[in-house]
Amino acid sequence: MTPEAFDAAARALRGATMDVQWGDDHIYKVGGKMFAGTDGAYSNCSFKVSDIAFEMLTTSGRARPAPYMARAKWVMFDDLAALDGAEVADWLKTSHRLVAAKLTRKQRVESGLA
Questions:
Q1: DSSP 61-107
Q2: Would you state the pLDDT for residue 113?
Q3: pTM, rounded to two decimals
Q4: I need a labelling partner for 70 at 20 to 30 A (CA). Which of 2, 37, 51, 64 fits?
Q5: Could you report the per-residue pLDDT of 36-88, keeping only the tens digit for each?
Q6: Helix, strand, coil proportions of the chain in percent (round to 5)?
Q7: Nearest to 95 by CA among 58, 61, 45
Q8: Which of 10, 28, 7 lies closest to 19, judged by CA?
Q9: What is the dihedral of CA 18, 21, 25, 31, to 10 degrees?
Q10: 82: which residues sit within 8 A by CB, 6+ positions away?
């Protein structure tokens, strides 16, 4: 997946924003909560996944537990360019949905989700 495609797929999700944090990391958020991130060069990516997906992706070796976020079921892929764009777009949608589901009603309204 290209950096431009990743950025477009993440920003296309309702209420999604992007901030540059921690140096040059590009962090995608919904309602002020992170749902995906990548380094400034878009060489890697990470996002929240379901419990089952976390186990499958990390035990198969396709992804690794994301540093500092593994306890929240985040995975990291070390080579964004090697990933299928449609699959990554689907993971971004899932991550966005998982994070948005935990927002307060006020956060959902402010993000245009309600």
A1: TSSEEPTTTGGGTEEEES-GGGS-HHHHHHHHHHHHHHHHTTS-HHH
A2: 87
A3: 0.91
A4: 2
A5: 999 999 999 999 999 999 999 999 999 999 999 999 999 999 999 999 999 99
A6: 40, 25, 35
A7: 45
A8: 28
A9: -30
A10: none
